[in-house]
Automatic annotation (TrEMBL), chains A, C:
Stretches that traverse the bilayer: none
EC code: 2.7.11.1
Highest taxon above the source species: Bacteria
NCBIfam families: spIIAB (TIGR01925)
Keywords (A to Z) from UniProt: ATP-binding, Kinase, Nucleotide-binding, Serine/threonine-protein kinase, Sporulation, Transferase
Protein name from the UniProt record: Anti-sigma F factor
Family matches, as InterPro entries: Anti-sigma-factor_SerPK, Anti-sigma_F, HATPase_C_sf, HATPase_dom
SUPFAM superfamilies assigned: ATPase domain of HSP90 chaperone/DNA topoisomerase II/histidine kinase (SSF55874)
Gene3D superfamilies: Histidine kinase-like ATPase, C-terminal domain (3.30.565.10)
Gene that this polypeptide is encoded by: spoIIAB
GO-annotated molecular function: ATP binding; protein serine/threonine kinase activity; sigma factor antagonist activity
EC class name: transferase
Record-annotated Histidine kinase/HSP90-like ATPase domain positions: 40-146
GO biological process, one term: negative regulation of sporulation resulting in formation of a cellular spore
Species name: Methylomusa anaerophila
């Protein structure tokens, strides 16, 4: 990560509800639209952010879903040549992050286990930090070419 | 107020309004014409400038015309 | 205000930059689209939220704009039959709220002074609480007819 100063930042804190996956997805697209990104790149960001937020809702909080103060946080920061998205939950955490990131790995037999694979392939970097019983933080970055004056 | 009222004429309880659909299709058309003009994908800002519509409106419209559940998100059950 | 439990809530915290007025506007529309509102009513919410957020950026922080930690907060809460929007800044505050809410009143001769008038006419309630030197909180509510099962 470079040390350049951010040019913009917004933070979202959303209740852990599946309705808010769509909300976060659209908000991420709106924030990303400030950057010189194409429609396709914005679609990729939407998929990656949806996957991370839905993981927080489904796996992070899961049945804890109903608890009033289960929030998922999404911090979006714009730099001159990249946007960072940091998605955090304070839910159950992941025992083995390496294993969880493998294609087709899912703790739920009904799911595809492709969330992390999509995040990794659609973004330019992905870092996952998790502590059992404390929660998970996913940091993703998307690069772009800074606008040239024209 | 008249100007804003006019802007608010759409009184439709349906989720995707006619005007949203128009914005989305126009954005995709302009993208195609900018692709042939510049030989590269235009940014959403370039499309917004061309259309003279705020970029957030284009984002909203494009999102609205998508399939509500994408292949990537088998999450809603 | 009723005491019913909220069905959903999201909180945004955005840097005081004019780019974020459009961001907040779209986020408000995305959140409001969860409720049984017409497109027309969602447009009204977009106008009201934009006016409140742009007031925070322009008047609340104004020249203080560049300071790194000037955030505008937007809390959106969905109830069974209404949505509340609370927009707060920690900027200079308003000396006389009554006067500021009058049609055509503006401290800036180049502005129209219609922001509060729009908020009031497009929403079902508007409350403005402000302390000089500490900031301003605008609370607006939009009612709707609760969804009937279908
Ligand atoms: N935020 C999270 N909290 C707890 N566990 C998680 C979280 N995100 C992912 N996981 C674990 O990692 C696995 C793989 O995630 P993913 O690749 O998105 O696949 P899927 O969601 O389809 O299971 C999940 O099945 C779950 O066990
Ligand atoms: N968040 C705020 N912080 C400080 N002053 C404010 C704020 N919001 C509104 N005001 C004051 O109230 C006046 C009226 O606001 P408004 O009706 O939106 O008109 P305008 O923004 O066109 O001036 C502003 O000119 C300003 O003096
Ligand atoms: Mg997943
Ligand atoms: Mg104003």
């Amino acid at each position: 990560m470079s040390t350049q100063a951010p040019t913009n930042q917004v933070k979202l804190s959303v209740l852990s509800l599946s309705e808010n996956v769509g909300f976060a997805r659209l908000s991420a697209a709106a924030f990303a639209s400030q950057a010189e990104l194409t429609i396709n790149e914005i679609e990729e960001i939407k998929v990656a952010v949806s996957e991370a937020v839905s993981n927080a809702v489904i796996h992070g909080y899961g049945k804890l879903n109903q608890k009033q103060d289960n929030y998922v946080e999404i911090v979006m920061t714009l730099y001159q040549d990249r946007i960072d998205f940091v998605i955090s939950d304070y839910g159950r955490g992941i025992a083995d992050v390496e294993a969880a990131r493998q294609p087709s790995y899912s703790s739920d037999p009904e799911r595809m286990g492709l969330g992390f694979v999509f995040m990794e392939s659609f973004m330019d970097s992905l870092a996952v930090v998790s502590t059992l019983g404390q929660g998970t933080t996913v940091t993703m970055s998307k690069k772009f070419t800074a606008k040239t004056s024209h | 107020i008249g100007e804003i009222r006019r802007y608010l004429r759409d009184n439709n309880p349906i989720r995707v309004s006619r005007s949203m659909r128009d914005i989305a299709y126009k954005a995709l058309q302009i993208r195609d014409s900018l692709v042939s003009k510049y030989s590269r994908e235009p940014s959403i800002n370039e499309i917004a400038e061309e259309l003279k519509i705020p970029r957030e409106e284009i984002i909203f419209a494009l999102d609205a015309i998508q399939e509500p559940i994408s292949l990537f998100e088998p999450i809603y059950h």
